[in-house]
Every structure is written in structure tokens, then in C-alpha cells.
Amino acid sequence: MFRVRNPKGKLVDEVEVEGVFDRRARLRSRKRTASGLCLVHWPEGSQQLDVTFRHSDGEASLTVRSDRKDPHRVVEVQLSAPAA
Fold this sequence. Notes:
The protein is an all-beta fold. It has one domain (2-78). The protein contains no helices and seven strands. It has strands spanning 2-5, 14-21, 25-32, 37-38, 48-55, 58-65, 75-78. The strands form two sheets. Strands 3-2-5-6 form a four-stranded antiparallel beta sheet, with no helix packed on it. A three-stranded mixed beta sheet has the order 4-1-7, with no helix packed on it. Strand 2 (14-21) and strand 3 (25-32) form a beta hairpin. The model has no long low-confidence stretch (mean pLDDT 91).
């Protein structure tokens, strides 16, 4: 689960998610969020997700691994403002 904030730190209400699990399985969707929370189904056996979050206020890309410390905690995402 991810909590997505805009560049000013406010929670976003909708986000576009695009990612790849283990460089094989693709994920692409637009999700409404509750309190900025975005749930992504993690396929069994997948080790890594390369993901990009997009919103009209900005975007953020990150890599998340299944073996990270505290894997059941929410991953905080801060969007960067688009380049001018």
C-alpha cells in the first residue's frame, strides 16, 4: 500500500499508477484514493516493483522490494512538481 502526497505534502484524491513487477508483469491503472492511500495487488512470488505515480500536480518513480524492512507498512510517496 502506498500513501501519495503532492509536492506541497497534501494527500492526493486520484493517482495514475504504472509499474512492472520483476521486469515481467505490467500494472497500469487509475485509482481513486482514500486519504491518499493506494492499494496495489502484489502478485505471489514477485520480488520487486518498479512503479511510477502520476497526478496533475506531479509524479514520482520508485523501486519497492518485497524483502524491504517492514514490508507490511505503508510506503510514503512524495510527488515532484513537473519541470517548467
